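Example (one chain per record):
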Amino acid sequence: MSEIAVNATATGYLRDILGRELVDGGMQSPLRQYETGIEDICRRWAGRHLVEVYPTGAFEKGTANRSGTAIDFLVSLSPAANYSMRDVYETLFVALGDAGLEPARRDVSIRVQLDGVGVDIVPARRVALSVDDHVLFQRRTGKTLTTNLTQHVLDIIACGRRDEVRILKLWRDQQGLDLPSFNLELAVLAALRRRPPGGDLADNVWAVLGYLETLFAARSLLDPANANNIASDQMTAAQKETVCEAARYTRAGRSWQEIVR
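Predicted structure:
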């Protein structure tokens, strides 16, 4: 079988998986029904300091998979909410528990399950009401970071790499890797930066796996919304090496049916 035929077969297999894992991200998506309930809880918690609650993350980027977290909400607080972001994070965690939910701490978000759907809630304080820059608390480091989640969404929508990101997220989850989605997105963009959008999906995924195997541990990944944030510093050297080893194993003669399911 020719290489072209092999790639076409592999890409067809991957696109079937993308269809199976498709999440409705439209304005009438049933996942948007959770926004009102989350906003009600947050308004009771934050009072006059709450600016708005709106979808963000993979749901807005179009990189969510049905088998992963389905929707994220940013809880945007006023710049006048002059509290430590650690306290903001922890008091929201308590408020969600008091509302009868069972919150779980994640890196910059708090996860709850609603009707069996994973929902990540990200508390953040605006730098100013005139901009979308927000300050978040990062549990991995115990520090705050300033970034622009709206820019993250727009960058991924514009890059033409959402299918590759979705496949690599499934690979990550099925491998059980501790690899933050933002780092994975940046790695996909770095690996494919010289390839025009719209190329062969299987070939592109293979190239990203090659980047993860050989370059991921050594390269710094910078937040495009704030170059002072070195996203790759979220991970330890051991975590990065685990990702490299998983990519190396994957590329060592594995069939596509073994790479991602």
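Caption: The domain at 3-22+154-259 is CATH 1.10.1410.40 (Poly(a)-polymerase, middle domain).
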